[in-house]
Amino acid sequence: MSLQIVASSPLISAATVISALLVVYLVGLNQLLSGVPENVRKLSPIRWSIPLLRKTYQRLEAEPITTRSYAQRIPPKLERRYIVTGGSGLVGGYIVLQLLERGQPPESIRIIDFRSPTRDDKLVRRVDFVQADISSAESTERAFSKPWNQKFRNLPLTVFHTAAVIVPSDRSKLEYAFCESVNVFGTRHVVDAAKRAGADILVSTTSASISIRPVKLWVAPWNIFSKSDSRWPQNYQQILNEEDFRQPLRKHDEYYANYPASKAAAERIVCEANCESFRTGCIRPANGVYGNPTDNTVGGPLNSSTFPTWITHIIQSFVHGANAAIAHLDFEAILTSPASSKSAQAGRPFVVTDPNPPITYGDLYFLIKTLAVTPFRTISLPPVPMVLLSYLVEGYSLLRLKWPAVCWILPAISGDVKHLKPALFTICTHLIASNDTASQPVKSGGLGFSGVFTTLEGMTQEVVEWNRVHQAAGTKDVTYQSSVSLAEEIQKATRAGSNG
């Protein structure tokens, strides 16, 4: 017995040392992932204060920014008819509102979407709505071929394609089929149907997340406690631009998740369709789009009285849905001439973001805590344990996909934790977007773009509206469906339809 103890002592000692080193590594990595590189910090040097937030709130409560207040910024009315796929959603909804504001008759606009519009606007209710599933070529064709009001049926047709599903955390090809069916095949169906319907302009919403490279969280141990710039994880800080569009499509695993991979493929479909008779282009909204309580960026925290987070320090650019919508109309104005198919703008994407420096998620949480009438508090979580848990969640989910037989004994993960997968940590890093290209004058190859909401104004106004609705509702519950939960609903409906 004594010989066995002596023999095992070196093994125990080695295991103890390795365990201690692993703990030191993980603690150091946790500190690193809780930090901000100095060059990124300089891009967002000012934090929002209580006086600033309250002053902005009071101003926007008294005089909110509406399509009427920025009507002069909307490109002038065109004698055209319009189809807006995804017109019930965030960006598509603002496109419809801006078209109406500039004088397009409601009867000259058609919304094609999976769900009907929910905006409380009298003119929007007069806009034609056609329910459709763009993952189905037949459903898409029926929606596009529906007869128009005789007064408008001979007008040129513009299509704004904003319909998509957002699944932010799935990255495995085993889970790609759903994103592909809507975002890739759906875009192909929309392009084909638009051509048959006689459209000569199509502007599509893609995503600035297309340019994001997967972050390499597991840095070399000797770099963790270094003071050099090389200590940060690879791709921990990224600029969101259009440079990737000049290169061939990357391999699937070179995108951080299925969503950007599918949007990149869809973007190429749209841009490669550009020709004299069918001018096209794409708008890439910056990583976080907001502007309605259904959004994930502001609406997600607003709908949660207790919000666990590990990204309070993370600095990112955001874009209000109205800003993204105006960029689509700017693009359309450029593409009205057949000769524009050979312009510097046609057949390419443009990144757009709010007209201000990036902010931290801490600014957003502080704004909600300070201004919202509903309770809100954050729970700070250490990033590394969440990373480790994310691999377990992903592994469990993929196990059920690879071996369906185990689904009888392994139930599906429910709740928000099912989205906790490694891909999520790439979009929880420092992501900075710029309007440098889109804001260039048209004669210089840009869109002449400028936003109408700063991030401070846009997020504050969303809370103003949130408070108005909740104060009017009293003790009644007010619920909103996020774009992520809508994607889940569409996926369930698709599965039910295929099984039926």
From TrEMBL:
It comes from the Eukaryota. InterPro entries: 3Beta_OHSteriod_DH/Estase, Lipid_A_modif_metabolic_enz, NAD(P)-bd_dom_sf. Residues 83-210, 251-381 form the 3-beta hydroxysteroid dehydrogenase/isomerase domain. Pfam families: 3Beta_HSD. Keywords: Membrane, Oxidoreductase, Transmembrane, Transmembrane helix. GO terms for biological process: steroid biosynthetic process. GO terms for molecular function: oxidoreductase activity, acting on the CH-OH group of donors, NAD or NADP as acceptor. The chain crosses the membrane at residues 12-33. Belongs to the 3-beta-HSD family. This is 3-beta hydroxysteroid dehydrogenase/isomerase domain-containing protein.
